[in-house]
């Protein structure tokens, strides 16, 4: 956002503290602004600007917040308008596949159904991201065992495993009960696992490891792909309109990060840029009452 600096001598008494700071903050923000997007921060004593007579910096993120809100509203509108026609199209294709068709037509319809389903999943993900960003309480939490959620996600990626000739190796060190929205966590894990599978060369393995610590469930997904550069790691979980140079889906990992963090967990990636990557998900464990 934009930044404006305030000189110390501009205020009576030369002090920008306590009630005076609150007064200046209120006057700069105006009656309709919120402290979430506008704030005043004190500059460190050794800062170059402080040596020039500046004492504070005004951080104004209102325009960025407005553009983010408008983007979310636009994407939500487009996705909502597209979902019903896409659902109808996929359903019609599924019904057609059960009919007597000319030779070779099944293959074409299967491809069309797969493409339609991918587009429908993308639209659904857009709507989910917008919903969770504006209302984290939309999560339907309930205590659940984590292993069945991971098993369901691994089973869902079976076609991609076969297509890429990649084997998923599972190692569970116990199990954990987590208070989660099981459906959304499963989908978040599927996006993460699909990304690892797409980075993997043929006849390699992707390892899924669950480690249960006293307060945290830790899931590691490791591939044997080419690895990620520091810049790729930094942007990996950002929302993007288009796929990256490796043809990875643009929104799946952003959805994964949002779901995990909304549950109070974290998503991280480790990679040396040349020999595979490890994606780490942490989730708080549900603590059962004693007695």
UniProtKB/TrEMBL annotation:
UniProt xrefs under SMART domains: HATPase_c, HisKA
Chemical reaction(s) catalysed: ATP + protein L-histidine = ADP + protein N-phospho-L-histidine
Keywords: Kinase, Phosphoprotein, Transferase, Two-component regulatory system
EC number: 2.7.13.3
Any matching Pfam family: HATPase_c
GO molecular function: phosphorelay sensor kinase activity
Domain Histidine kinase: 77-287
Protein name (record): histidine kinase
UniProt source species: Kouleothrix aurantiaca
């Amino acid at each position: 956002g934009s930044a404006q600096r305030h000189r110390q001598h501009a205020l009576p008494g030369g002090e920008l503290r306590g009630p005076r700071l609150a007064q200046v903050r209120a006057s700069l923000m105006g009656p309709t602004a919120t402290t979430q997007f506008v704030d005043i921060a004190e500059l460190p004593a050794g800062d170059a600007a402080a040596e020039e007579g500046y004492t504070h910096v005004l951080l104004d993120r209102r325009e960025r917040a407005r553009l983010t809100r408008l983007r979310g509203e636009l994407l939500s509108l487009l996705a909502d308008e597209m979902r019903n026609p896409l659902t109808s199209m996929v359903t019609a294709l599924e019904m057609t596949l059960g009919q007597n068709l000319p030779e070779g037509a099944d293959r074409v319809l299967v491809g069309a159904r797969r493409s339609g389903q991918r587009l429908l999943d993308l639209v659904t993900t857009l709507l989910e991201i917008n919903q969770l960003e504006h209302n984290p309480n939309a999560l339907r939490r309930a205590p659940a065992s984590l292993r069945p959620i991971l098993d369901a996600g691994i089973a869902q990626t079976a076609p991609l495993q076969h297509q890429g000739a990649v084997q998923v190796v599972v190692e569970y060190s116990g199990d954990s009960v987590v208070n989660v929205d099981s459906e959304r966590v499963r989908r978040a894990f599927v996006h993460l696992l699909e990304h690892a599978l797409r980075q993997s060369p043929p006849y390699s393995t992707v390892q899924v490891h669950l480690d249960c610590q006293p307060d945290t469930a830790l899931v590691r997904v490791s591939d044997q792909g080419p690895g990620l550069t520091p810049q790729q790691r930094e942007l990996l979980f950002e929302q993007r309109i288009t796929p990256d140079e490796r043809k990875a889906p643009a929104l799946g990992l952003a959805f994964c990060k949002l779901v995990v963090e909304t549950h109070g967990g974290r998503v991280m990636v480790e990679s040396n840029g040349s020999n595979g990557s490890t994606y780490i998900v942490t989730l708080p464990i549900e603590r059962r009452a004693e007695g």
